[in-house]
C-alpha cells in the first residue's frame, strides 16, 4: 500500500532528519527554480528547516522556511555559482560552522561555509578538492556522470570535518572513493584514505557512512556496479589511518542507492531491478541479506 503518491513530474525527493517531512524536486523546476532539479538535501536539525537544491543549469540554491503573516513559507536565501553541472550536495555541521559540499561533473568538489548561521545568505568558497592524485589526471579533462558525498555522522551535536567522496567516470583516479579531513592547523582539506572499488573501472553510485553508537572503528558502505563494499575505517590509531574491506555484497542488478539505519547496524540497498535489500552482520562478522522487498 502506497503512503503517498507523487506527480509524474517529480524527479527527486529527500526526507528531513526526523523522517517527517519530504522535499520534492520537479522536472519543471518548481519552487521558483527555472530548470529541472536533480538533487535535494536537508540541513542539520540545529539550523531549522533548510534545503539545498542543484539544477540542470548548474545552479545551487539554499532555501529556508520562514514565518510570514502566521503562515510558513519557503524562500531562497542564497544561490551559489558553479562552473560545472552539480551531481550531488550535502550539508555538514562542523566546529567552523555550517558547510555545504558540492560534487560537480568536472571532477571537483567545492566546499562552501557560512560562519553566520543566522544569515544564510552569506556563503564563501572555502576549498576546491579533487579525488585525482596523478598530475596527468588533474590537468586532463574529466566528465563525470554521477557522484556521491557522505559526511561522517555527528557524535553529539558537532560533526567532525570528515566526508567521503566518490565519482562515476571513466577516469580511474576519480572513480575511487576518498576520505577527506579538514586539518585545522593548516586550514586545508586533505585526503586521508582511499577505498578502491570492487570492480576496477566501475564508478561509484552511492556512499553511506554509518552512524557510530559505540563501535571502535567506522563503517562506510560504497556501491559500485552491482556490488556494495563494506569498509572498516580506523582513524587516529597507532598507524594513523587504516582501512580494510570486510564485506562485498553482491546484487543481481546495478545498485542505485544505499543507506544505514539510525543504529548503523542495518544497511538498505536499492537496485535497478526494483528490489530493496536489507543487510546485517552476524555474530561471526559475516554480512548476510536479511530481507528483500520488490517495488
From TrEMBL:
GO terms for biological process: cellular response to amino acid starvation; positive regulation of TORC1 signaling; protein transport. Its main location: nucleus. It comes from the Eukaryota. WD repeats lie at residues 248-280. GO terms for molecular function: structural molecule activity. GO terms for cellular component: nuclear pore outer ring; Seh1-associated complex. It holds the Pfam family WD40. PROSITE patterns: WD_REPEATS_2, WD_REPEATS_REGION. Keywords: Nucleus, Protein transport, Repeat, Transport, WD repeat. It is found in: Nucleus envelope. Belongs to the WD repeat SEC13 family. PANTHER family: NUCLEAR PORE COMPLEX PROTEIN SEC13 / SEH1 FAMILY MEMBER (PTHR11024), NUCLEOPORIN SEH1 (PTHR11024:SF3). This is Uncharacterized protein.
Amino acid at each position: 500500500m502506497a503512503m503517498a503518491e507523487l506527480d509524474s513530474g517529480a524527479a527527486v525527493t529527500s526526507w528531513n532528519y526526523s523522517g517527517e517531512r519530504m522535499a520534492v524536486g520537479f522536472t519543471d523546476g518548481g519552487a521558483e527554480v527555472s530548470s529541472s532539479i536533480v538533487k535535494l538535501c536537508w540541513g542539520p536539525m540545529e539550523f531549522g528547516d533548510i534545503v539545498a537544491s542543484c539544477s540542470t543549469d548548474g545552479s545551487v540554491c539554499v532555501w529556508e522556511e520562514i514565518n510570514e503573516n502566521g503562515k510558513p513559507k519557503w524562500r531562497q536565501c542564497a544561490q551559489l555559482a558553479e562552473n560545472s553541472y552539480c551531481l550531488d550536495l550535502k550539508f555538514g555541521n562542523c566546529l567552523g560552522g555550517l558547510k555545504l559540499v558540492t560534487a560537480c561533473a568536472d571532477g571537483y568538489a567545492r566546499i562552501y561555509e557560512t560562519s553566520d548561521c543566522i544569515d544564510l545568505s552569506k556563503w564563501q568558497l572555502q576549498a576546491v578538492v579533487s579525488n585525482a592524485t596523478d598530475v596527468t589526471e588533474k590537468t586532463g579533462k574529466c566528465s563525470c556522470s554521477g557522484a556521491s558525498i557522505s559526511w561522517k555522522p555527528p557524535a553529539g551535536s558537532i560533526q567532525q570535518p570528515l566526508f567521503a567522496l566518490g565519482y562515476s567516470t571513466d577516469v580511474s583516479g576519480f572513480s575511487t572513493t576518498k576520505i577527506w579531513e579538514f586539518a585545522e592547523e593548516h586550514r586545508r582539506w586533505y585526503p586521508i584514505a582511499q577505498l578502491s572499488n570492487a570492480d576496477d573501472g566501475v564508478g561509484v553510485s552511492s556512499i553511506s557512512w554509518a552512524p557510530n553508537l559505540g563501535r571502535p572503528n567506522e563503517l562506510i558502505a560504497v556501491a559500485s556496479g552491482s556490488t556494495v563494499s563494506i569498509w572498516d575505517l580506523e582513524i587516529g590509531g597507532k598507524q594513523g589511518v587504516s582501512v580494510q574491506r570486510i564485506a562485498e555484497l553482491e546484487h543481481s542488478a546495478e545498485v542505485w542507492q544505499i543507506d544505514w539505519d539510525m543504529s548503523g547496524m542495518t544497511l538498505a540497498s536499492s537496485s535497478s531491478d526494483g528490489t530493496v535489500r536489507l543487510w546485517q552482520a552476524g555474530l561471526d562478522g559475516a554480512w548476510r541479506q536479511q530481507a528483500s522487498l520488490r517495488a
